[in-house]
## 1
Amino acid sequence: MNQKLTIRKLREGEELAVSRVCKRCIKEINSKDMTKKQVRYLSDYFSAKNIRESLGETRVYVALLGEKIVASGSLCEGRIKAVFVNPSYHKKGVGAKLVRYLEGILKKMGHNSTFVRSSKHAVEFYKKLGFREAEKINSPDVGEIVVMKKKLK
Ligand SMILES: CC(C)(COP(=O)(O)OP(=O)(O)OC[C@H]1O[C@@H](n2cnc3c(N)ncnc32)[C@H](O)[C@@H]1OP(=O)(O)O)[C@@H](O)C(=O)NCCC(=O)NCCS
């Protein structure tokens, strides 16, 4: 990874690029822990239209290498949501940089702690970033979710 990673808020018109990153992760990675129906539900949930419509309550951030969106992650009422890194760029530190950036925003907003409803796949990733496992939820829509919590101060 020679190019510098830039992280900023999503701009109008970028929803489709974000949706593609999410859907590729769901298909190639998260689908291993889900039924076909759950994969369809989650893939639909991250359509460009739904991302656009969520922007009132959710702040979506993107990570770019040059002009290319390689990851996205969101904040919603003090929690971190939907961190997805293009599988071609996994294990290169992109996810960690994005989550630390989101944590920084939450701290500035005055939050002392945060949580994320993690996929099964991402539990060890969040542990490496200082989150601890708080609860397991079995969602009929998306399968196993692990609530990961972290103190920010
Ligand atoms: C989980 C995810 C965001 C990690 O992104 P990434 O850019 O590959 O992560 P990083 O390279 O920043 O990894 C940071 C550390 O976590 C480790 N790590 C990353 N993914 C891991 C995994 N699935 N299992 C175990 N460790 C993992 C890395 O090895 C690295 O460890 P190190 O600091 O000792 O070198 C990415 O795999 C992804 O998009 N997954 C699919 C979508 C998903 O499930 N997102 C979570 C929804 S809330």
Note: The pocket of coenzyme A is lined by residues 25, 29-30, 82-85, 90-96, 116, 118-119, 121-122, 124-125, 128 (CB under 6 Å).
## 2
Amino acid sequence: MDVVVPEEVEKEKEESLEQEGGERGASPEKEKKRFFYSKKVCRFCTGQIKKEEVTYKNVELLRRYIMPSGKILPRRITGTCTKHQRVLVAEIKKARILALLPFLAR
Ligand SMILES: [Zn+2]
């Protein structure tokens, strides 16, 4: 009779983690708030702003999406989704041509 010896298979896990830099003791949770903007949700998708409202005539709305200098705010700041940003930008450009919005404000 063969004696069955339970084989203990030990897998040697060699986790060699190479630490690349980061040994300066800098805390990763350190974040600087560069700009203050409210929550990033597409206001057009959520229904806060209706599709019909996005026209070149609605200067007050469009003005919220441009900088004081007249530049169009990027999506990452306003939180507008790609689809609606494109519509928005098109309307802003129309408004600019009609001199409702500035190309460049001083
Ligand atoms: Zn959207």
Note: The CA atoms of residues 61 and 72 lie 12 Å apart.
